[in-house]
Design goal:
alpha/beta
């Protein structure tokens, strides 16, 4: 009897092992779906978010759904700086972010966002799409990031609760800046009090008078309704700060080289779409703000503003100063 029981148990064990092996073999044969999370500060219809969604669409299309990127807009996964840290450690897979807060983790990015650096938008894109942009993307891996694509964010100017027509008008005003050492230096160089603050807190801070103003582009001024609580927009176009999509190097290293290349190319191919969406929304935002009756102050001569930025250039690292010289030489 004991021998029969032992024989039966042995048969069950063999059958169980065979079933498990077959299941494992079947699982290995089936393609495993990879889901990656991409954090975005702006709302669902903002041009950078639309660019993210196009990037996600291209990845899903080119992998037949095997790799899927989920876009989380409206700072659902956190504000920019906190998200950057999470991406660096692999807790969040990707983010679209301004290079200003990212420069705290990768100081070489400061060379791309210096005030009054680019002659115009075309100049900036020649730099970003060319050798300099590629080199800086590559250096990000040393900080734990993989650069995937550059996005447009136009030029930045000041919007305030009271009019600013000259540098002297900014003196003593509390101006919100991104959590970036360079942007703090820029505002301080103009005599204002730099107030680093997460983007999501700016509206209430303007409304309650905690700050006197901020600096950003037309779409951000409009889409966040900041134009309601800061009625003066001073167009001095002090910086063009590119946006960037970065992935966690930890996360990317887990993927095959072929999948990494698909993701890189899809992100790069989403750039033209994002730029076109940016240009359209920029025009819409400007028209809406002007129609609202906001006071738009255009600075005809930026020379005094540029001169005030020379100490900021002098404080750049020698390596970044060399990159700035190369940027200025691009034609």
């Amino acid at each position: 009897m004991k021998r029969i029981i032992l024989f039966s148990v042995s048969l069950l064990l063999v059958a169980s092992m065979a079933w498990s092996a077959g299941r494992a073999e079947g699982s290995a044969a089936a393609p495993q779906q990879v889901v990656l999370r991409l954090a975005e500060t702006h709302g669902p219809d903002y041009p950078t978010t639309l660019g993210n969604k196009e990037f996600a669409r291209l990845v899903e299309e080119r992998t037949n759904g095997r790799i899927r990127i989920e876009v989380y807009p409206s700072a659902q996964l956190g504000e920019e700086r906190a998200v950057i840290e999470q991406v660096q450690f692999g807790a969040i897979d990707m983010t679209r972010v301004s290079i200003s807060p990212l420069a705290a983790f990768a100081p070489q990015l400061d060379a791309l966002q210096m005030p009054f650096l680019y002659r115009d938008k075309d100049h900036m894109w020649k730099v970003l799409r060319g050798e300099i942009g590629a080199e800086i993307m590559e250096t990000l891996e040393g900080s734990g990031f993989v650069g995937l694509a550059w996005y447009d964010s136009g030029s930045r100017s000041f919007y305030t609760r009271r009019p600013v027509r000259t540098i002297a008008d900014l003196r003593g005003m509390r101006i919100r800046v991104q959590e970036s050492e360079l942007m703090v230096g820029l505002v301080q160089g103009l005599g204002a009090v730099a107030t680093p603050m997460p983007f999501g807190e700016v509206y209430s801070a303007l409304q309650t008078g905690v700050i006197d103003g901020a600096e950003n582009n037309w779409p951000s001024y409009y889409a966040t309704s900041h134009f309601e609580v800061a009625p003066y927009f001073t167009l001095n176009h002090h910086t063009r700060v590119p946006e960037i999509i970065v992935a966690s190097k930890i996360v990317m290293d887990r993927l095959s080289p072929a999948d990494q290349e698909i993701i890189r190319q899809a992100a790069w191919d989403s750039m033209d779409y994002q730029i076109s969406q940016w240009e359209a929304f920029e025009q819409e935002a400007e028209a809406a703000v002007r129609a609202n009756g906001n006071t738009i102050i255009e600075i005809a001569d930026n020379t005094p503003w540029q001169q005030a930025m020379q100490p900021l250039y002098a404080r750049l690292s020698p390596a970044n100063q060399r990159v700035v010289e190369r940027i200025r030489a691009v034609r």
